[in-house]
Records
---
Amino acid sequence: MKVLGLILAGQKGENLGKLTNRRASAAMPVAGKYRAIDFTLSNMVRAGIRKVGVLTQYNPRSLMDHLGSGREWDLDRKNGGLYILQPYVSETSQLWYRGTADAIHQNITVLRRGEEDYVLIGSGDHIYNIDFTPLFKYHLATAADITILTKSSAGYDPAMYGTVKVNENNRITYFVEKDKENPGDMINLGVYFMNKKLMMDILYSTVPNGKYDLVRDIIIPNINSLNIMSYEFSGYWRNIKKSLIEYKKVNMDMLNPDILNELFPPQRKIYTKLKDLAPPKITSTGSVTSSIIADGCIISGRVTNSVLFRNVNVKAGAYVEDSVIMEGSVIEEGAKLVNCILDKNVTIRSEKSYIGYEEPLVFEKWQVV
Amino acid sequence: MNEIVAMILAGGQGTRLGVLTENVVKPAVPFGGKYRIIDFTLSNCVNSSIYTVGVLTQYRPRVLSTHLGVGRDWDMDRKNGGLFILSPYAASTEGEWYKGTAHAVAQNIDFIDQFSPKYVLILSGDHVYSMDYNEMLDFHISKNADATISCIRVPLSEAHRFGTVITDNISKVKEFEEKPKNPRSQLASMGIYIFNWPLLREILIKDSKDESSSHDFGKDIMPNLVSQRAIYAYEFEGYWRDVGTIDAFWEANIDLTRSMPALNLYDPNWRFYTHSAEMPPAFFGLNAKILNSLTSEGCIVNGTAESSVLFQGVTLGRGSYVKNSVIMTNVKIGENCFIENAIISENVVIGNDCQIGIGENVPNERYPNIYNSGISVIGECVIVGDNVKIGKNASIGNFLNMVEMNVKEVPGGKNLRVDGLA
């Protein structure tokens, strides 16, 4: 079975404020050394997908830099491999992507040309580790037209997600987007598996009529005419784009060994761009508890309950608690950070103290404070 | 055409590293938290913009070949040049092992010829150092030398372990003595040479026909050459270690945990590349205490580590205490263990309540030349079990299952092998 992977990675992620001023949310750094898109990309590659299209639009530089030729995911291939699909100017049109369905429709050539039979659509913003092969089998066994990955809505705010209800055969019978009043009991995880020809047929009949959204204009109106099945996922799944607090929580979740093991089991790896930095070093004045520390860090201060990305330098006498510190940041002598998110290459000058209360304090890239 | 081709000698066993090199060749021995020894030489090549590299392998090359692959991790998977693994081969008339370092290069003359280089750089895959070969090449060119030897100043008391050179006031080599009993110079050869290729080619062909030669650069080629040709000594000032003994290997690792070590692994302008497993960042639990240590990706630390190097994927259980030790990739250490002055190889599993590196510092009975500095060494994939005591200068052979063998104690100076304690 040949499957074409498509990853929606064009959004800004408005809710993340300053952090997505200069990068798409799919390029958000997560869990010490990864970018959000690594999870979906690695999940797809591990499921045997050899051709992946990444649909980009909002400030893709950081994302492109990360993906490169796709080599880290074994997608630098003579056949297939990684395709970056961005909006373009042509003879007939010069439009931005007007929605998820429109984005795929504008790149319909990729669907038309390939020899794949199926399409798996995922999002670059989701943090989870899944083996897709049982989902593929389930799709075939149930003769589904579309299979959607779902999860029990317990612990998620239905007002922020698409929610569904299923019948006794797991067929989706009810689907609403971000409905607080009448939510379904399962949330839509934004992963769609379907026959490629069907996908093309649907796109040809909807997008030219001004219907641009995959969920609102394609799936929901066809809920009765198509056999749309729900495949339930019970593992850890989060969407980092929902809010700043959610983004921080996802990072903090890595301090729970159970979640860490579930997301990064040795037999189902998540791949990312390697930088071959030296192992982190903790010096005689440093102490680290309940934290994850990525390569290249030099810790001479105290770090507790925090996530430190690569090449972070915490100098002697500095104190970092409950914070997310991205690559290349420097916390100088005697500085104190509590509940902060530092974007890349931030410098906190010595003796300064920053404490986030209800929301984490966010420092932008290259800030010196 | 490439101006310079590097040949890395990576076939030596390194007998004084004991169990560490029983199954892998010395350049493939893990070092510094995530590297293997050859990474330093290869990274120096890349950082010096030398992208045509032949690696001469012979002794147990499997781990080394797997590590190198097509050289992709060092950006050496190239259309022109790149990384080549050169193993001994059988030819139509005869097949032979490499009989010495010079013979190994001589057997690959046609490999070097295809690039028609001006210079050939001879390197060793056994050393840990950081060096810009271009500076040495500039020196070689400026002296209009036929060959240049890279040298480092060592204490006179140590010089007998090296090839030593005696130079005149313009750095021209007057004499070259391989491992002299009474050294007359502090300048020790680092085993790094630059030759003009036409000259080296000629010498190698001549040497390979010489029945009395042992075909070694240090023993045969260099001592003969200094009287006939313009050989210069380039004095290198920087970090260089021959980690050829258990003590030197241990010390070079532990040095990295000190503040401001001489070998800077964190220099953004001189990075060391390696082939490493994809693992999440190191995790430190609530009870983790860690001082002066390196802890690589994939580590899960719930115990205490002091002045130690923890490689990728090491698990350190609650209540366990590791001091002055080198713990290699994927070692699992249970709870309430005490480990001091130890080298623990890859994939070792240590149960709970073990004590390693305890008791009297008695020299090893069978291998006094290998295990003599108080360091205990455990070979790869050993299963140690619970409540085990291992003394100083003790060694445990690779792949032993101490639980099945029912061994609960290896006293200081003893060795555990397949056939039992000796």
---
Amino acid sequence: MTLPPDDPRTGATPRPDETSPDRDTVGNVPATTGAEPEVVEIRRGMFGEQDTGDTSGYNGLVRAVAMPSPSERPFGGDFDTVADALTGALARTGRTFGTAVEKTVVDRGEITFYVRRDAIVDTARVFRDDPDLRFELLSGVSGVHFPDEAGRELHAVYHLLSITHNRRVRLEVTAPDADPHIPSVVAVYPTADWHERETWDFFGIVFDGHPALTRIQMPDDWPGHPQRKDYPLGGIDVEYKGAVIPPPDTRRSYN
Amino acid sequence: MADETLNPSTTDPSTTDPSTTDLSTTDEPDLYGLPEDAYDEGRVFTAGGGDWDEIAEEASELGEERIVVNMGPQHPSTHGVLRLILELDGETVTEARCGIGYLHTGIEKQMEYRTWTQGVTLCTRMDYLMPLYQEVAYCLGVERLLGIQDQVPERVNVIRVLLMELNRVSSHVVALATGGLEIGALTVMTIGFRMRERVLKIFELITGLRMNHGFVRPGGLAQDLPPGALDMITDTMPDIYQDISDIEDLANENPLVRSRLVDVGYLDLTGCMSLGITGPPLRSTGLPHDLRRSQPYCGYEDYEFDVVTWDTCDAYGRLRIRVEEMRQSMRIVEQCVRKLRDMPAGPVMVADKKIAWPAQLTIGGDGMGNSLEHIREIMGQSMEALIHHFKLVTEGFRVPAGQVYQAVESPRGELAVHLVSDGGTKPYRAHFRDPSFVNLQAMAAMCEGGQVADVIVAVASLDPVLGGVDR
Amino acid sequence: MGIEEKVPSGFLLTTVEGLAGYMRRNSLWPATFGLACCAIEMMTTGGPKYDLGRFGMEVFRGSPRQADLMIVAGRVSQKMAPVLRQIYDQMVEPKWVLSMGVCASSGGMFNNYAIVQGVDHVVPVDIYLPGCPPRPEMLIYAILELHAEIQRMPLGVDRRRAAEAAERAALEAVPTSHMKGLLR
């Protein structure tokens, strides 16, 4: 999702500018394909805090946080084998690659399939059972929260490992904050049990179909989901003799 | 009083059955709970005090002959603060569940507020028996995000492997020592801890600390090996080998150990695959899955070592695997020492000054601080070096946006880190896939149907470390 | 507590204090409350190289009812805090608490939602031991300091007087946040 230059949210420099001499301040964009990078957030100010009356100019800094852009075929190496096998196997279950997978990102030597949430269970089953895929082991399910990516705030990330073919793949499912439901893959990979409980505990993603979705790390009656970005770090001020140092999330820090 | 504890609506809120607890003072639905008909475990009784005779009498009157026993979280034999909730029918365990989260530290969230380099000191304390593995996994992940994984000097990789394998020895020895302590083999404990002291002395010489080192940094290491380190390792190795032999003599063919460990905690390959188990429990089923072989990192493809498997899928197999893996680790340590002796002195950090941790610490007349050469350079010779030092320590380096998943073969299984970067100086999300967290799910499969005493042995054979489980 | 509480102040009381202190400190049995990394260092201190058995403390009692000293070794999470208090309550007087490590003393490096910022929020602590984790020698030093404290522990009337004096001193003392003007 890229912002057009006249989008009011962007202010001065909307797009990460790869020709800028100072790449550090204008969105370090890894060199992928020529496609537009996905902007998930716009950060303003060097130090995070706004409206401090700071006239140094650092407050005017605008940085677009841009995740690696989607990739087109051919992906290179083993990834094409995986994508072909996936397409074939999905076709046998009655889905096409396009209906199950929103986009594919190949970055840093890893492939990520962004799977639509209604298709995740079938896709996981296909990944586990198809002989050319055979991803027997689900390493883990975890969550990431992007509060500024409207409609796609909560991401659930599944990492699969194939011992037979010695490959790794990542599946990512998004859900909006307003409707944080994702079907559970416990029926396909029983190991997801505790992982999904932990993701529910920390992000509030409700996994439909999970046998016992309760809090696992936090106390059973804890309110809130701690690892969301809108949940404070929760520390206390450290008292020194005559001075107080606030906890790290309320201090000024580099944005 | 016993009546109150049996009445579900006034039960202590820490009961295991949330649907019978009414915490709200209004009629608002509990936003964080599932609908009441989602649970059907039957009536749950929480005994919160009162006379044991009365409670037992009432429980038996109601026709329930099963007792729910809580082992932990404070218990000498559960590896840390693990709560085992066992439903017993006599000596047989009919249902077993784990309650975890008693050591949850919020490290992953804390890492989001600390720079990439400071994250090392936080992630090191997750699984405190294998701190270097967390550091190496994290630093490898950061290096991949930065794209500098090929620029890391060779010396760094060899030292990382050396430290990791020594850590594998010290971690396995704690597993064996505490396992022995739990089944009553106290000498295994004393020999094990004596052996661990030898390894910790080596760590202290090289990294400065016995545990939770914070030594591996993104881009390399904090310091080079001090002079005399290789000699000390070479001198200590025969003692370590002797200690491994002592443990083997005490434990391997011991009839008591065999009678308590053989056929206990059985989990075959199907069970391991479905539960995501890796590490010694998976290798005890016979599958030689070791990430050091299949997806090598840090130059592991250049070392000669065997992947140790056993075929009995039980606790005894895992014991034999751990003992033998210690021998294989020492073999790798020997090869590392030989490589380091042959290798000329070189840098232990990447050449890119915008990422490389600048300072070299040394012990001076007034304590520990930056080495004088470094101070001379930044104060007298190079303005650029001063700026780099300042920016790296205060702001940290920026890592291009993206995500990466880096896995290493730790003593307990596959330890992996999922790092998401937003292009800033701090991790946007750092999630650790901890092997103990996943392996502990197998506890129920291993223990149900067995005896209570076997629960201890089964959990010990999985070797969970609750710091990693709870993070 | 016992008969030693009812001895009138004077030479007899000081003798009883000395004797009771000597007995108590030389067989102080710790309760196993190892939580995290500090627990491993605590186990090492009980091990062969840094032997706690020299001080009569090698028996780590599993049951808090049989223990005198609770070494809170490691970070105490919010979920664990009620359990910690329950174990402390189950211990029988006289009991002491040693908070081992920075996480137990003050929350350590984890200043966040999940960790209790110092176990003195939950149980009264007699001696704090910083370190991350503290070396076994440091733990032994802290235990020996505690032994000295136990040796000097007043009983009966003396104890009430000492408690009143301590309370008066604490009420008159300047709070830490008001101690200004030190950076001069």
